[in-house]
Sequence to fold (152 residues):
Amino acid sequence: MTSGAEGWDSRWIMSVLPHRYPFLLVDRVLEIAPRQRIVALKNVTVNEEFFVGHFPGRPVMPGVLIVEALAQACGILLLHDKPPAERRLVYFTGIERARFRRPVVPGDQLRLEIEVLRLRELHCRFTGRALVDGQLATEATLSSAMVGDGPG
Fold:
């Protein structure tokens, strides 16, 4: 397993994923074990656009966006070691057994932990957990498919 000391920050993440503000939901990668596991972070700030309406006066990060952050971490794991010319788009194709255990609020830092369950050339299955201060916030089994010739 390698650690993120090499500079796996938001600029590096944007070189791997096609997502951009306001929909890039991974801020830093801490660890990658190629084809096995990734640990990443999402800093949840009061400035997130979704907090304007979810919910006024009592902001809570929508569960679907927590799951999307987990899916983006999966995409980073799948694409990080491929040269740009070989990268494809990674589509989130399924979610099973999603459970939301605690609310995620401004000031929280989500620790996104992904482990590969099955990895094939074009289809992958993962288990994901989002934790805040060591407490489980969200867990799910995710599926993805690689399609097309990439973002560009």
